[in-house]
Structure formats: C-alpha cells, structure tokens
C-alpha cells in the first residue's frame, strides 16, 4: 500500500517508539523510509536556552551533531530490519511546514509520527506539531500513541 514513509523525529522517547513501529511497518509493506529532524535556525533573540549562550557557528555545529545522532537511530534500526533508508536535516522555525514540505518534496506517501514530542510549557506554547501536520497535510498521517 505505502511505498515511502517519512519519519519525523525529535529524538524523544515517544518519537523513538513511533520510529520503531513505522520501520517495522515499512519492512512488512516492502516500503522505504526517510528520517527527518527539523532544527530551528539560530536566532539572536530566542526562547530556546541552548541558543542564548552560543555563537551562531557553535549552535550550527552542535545542532547538526545532535540531528545526526537522532537520525542515526533511524538509520541503524532500518538497517537491522533491511529497510532502505535515507535521512534529511531541515532548518526551519515551522516544524509542521518542514515536515509536510519534506514529505511532498521526497514524494512520500505516508507520514508516521508520534502523538507527542515536546512536553511541559514548551509544548503548550508551541502547540502540537502532530496536530498541525494532521490539519494541513494532504499526505496521509499515521499517528503513533
């Protein structure tokens, strides 16, 4: 049914569980996967504590390293399951737009993601990225709870 599944991840435990389920689904369906991690660009004024003390170059290097570490989880799991996999890092303040645009650009026919990632005040302030993807995507979305 589905041939190419986009797996957006923020590296959270719930996101990791969704990735595991989606990679197994891809294996069973003979599909391939693309892992996606969205990194916010550097801002001088920000609500993100990790940007306040960094220089732009330092932030770029550290966020790239973290993104690669998060995506390596998908790559390793896909390899173990024999599922073709590629990964992509996108810099954007609009996570849901980046997810939808990547799915469209990569010609994915399914987006599989966790129901929750960010928690606490950050989650309340930002709203649910999953909900935004569900609302705006023309591509089917599988939500893992």
Automatic annotation (TrEMBL):
The residues covered by the UspA domain are 1-145
Pfam families, per database record: Usp
Compartment(s) of residence = Cytoplasm
The name under which this protein is listed is: Universal stress protein
Query: Which species is this UniProt entry from?
Result: Massilia agrisoli
Ordered alphabetically, the record's keywords are: Cytoplasm
Entry's transmembrane regions? none
Family classification: Belongs to the universal stress protein A family.
Q: Specify the domain of life of the species encoding this protein.
A: Bacteria
């Amino acid at each position: 049914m589905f041939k190419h599944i986009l797996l957006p991840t923020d590296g959270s435990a719930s996101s990791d569980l969704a990735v595991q389920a989606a990679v197994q689904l891809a294996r069973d369906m003979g599909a391939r996967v693309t892992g996606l991690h969205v990194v916010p660009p550097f801002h001088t004024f920000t609500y993100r504590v990790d940007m306040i003390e960094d220089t732009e170059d330092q932030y770029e290097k550290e966020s790239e390293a973290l993104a690669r570490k998060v995506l390596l989880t998908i790559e390793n799991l896909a390899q173990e399951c024999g599922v073709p996999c590629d990964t992509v890092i996108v810099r954007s303040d609009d996570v849901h737009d980046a997810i939808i645009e990547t799915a469209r650009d990569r010609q994915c026919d399914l987006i599989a993601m966790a129901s929750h990632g960010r928690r606490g005040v950050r989650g309340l302030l930002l709203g649910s990225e999953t909900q935004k993807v569900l609302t705006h995507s023309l591509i089917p979305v599988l939500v893992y709870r």
